[in-house]
Amino acid sequence: MPRMLDVSDEVRAEIGDEEAARLLAGESAPGSYDCTSCRTPGDSEQERTSTVLFIGDETAVLAFAHATCLPSQVVQVTEEQLQGAVRSIGAGGAESQQQVPQGHQPQYGGQAQDVRQPQQPADLVPEQAVLGVTSGLVLIQGELHPALVVEPTAPVARPGTFGSGDDFLPLLIEQGFMPLTELAAVPPVLHGWSVLLAAGQLHAVLQPNPSGGRPVAWWQAHQPLQVTDGWRAAANKHQQVLMFAAPVGSIGRQPREDLMRDALDKAAAGGKLVGAALPLAGI
Known about the structure:
This protein is an alpha/beta fold. The protein has two domains: 5-108, no CATH class; 131-279, no CATH class. It is 21% helix and 30% strand. It has six helices and 15 strands. Strands 1, 4, 5, 6 and 7 form a five-stranded mixed sheet that branches. A five-stranded mixed sheet has the order 8-9-14-15-10, sandwiched between helices. Strand 8 (131-140) and strand 9 (143-152) form a beta hairpin.
């Protein structure tokens, strides 16, 4: 039976017109699946469904998502992450468990609990600063919004320079993040940047590729970041995540969301906070 699948041009370019036709005809796509974003059931025979292709160095995994959660897109990941994805898909009873080289028919999985990563910090600049990332819900104008709070573990120098200065906030402001003096309103959307939420977990913050083409990871953790059901529901409702960033020592690791909000308010009042609303990956 034909499927209500969205196959983007970039996905089609990777899998080929013949395989795209087989997907749309229902020959190689499952009817029911678990959405790789919100992890709830979907039915490609009854509702619009996006094809999301995760590509590593040698293999590829094709997953499916509600079109209202994620658009059809190609996501670059490490081969190590992709192998973890294949193992997770196999354990979850995916229709196919065969690994295939990139450029051939991809592995299919209803739930791609595999690719991507965040919670642990990732290298930022040659000075070896790493980013601490905390997720939480932030109340703004009477509504809860999903938020990520980013704080490096050390001062961040401008690439190519040496010294004891901290250019973390100026570098982000140059990328389009807005200085915040209070959290009275949702910050503007920063187009080109996005947050990758897949298989119900947070995997990366993506930024525009300086060379053009697909976005690249600005931050990608060593293990997927578990988020609460409320955080995930808010992200899917708003189709965006608020990202706040502050210099080292401004926020700290706060055990509760109310304490995190207090720290954000203090950082903003002290001129040490920038923020932006980032769409979910590919939006």
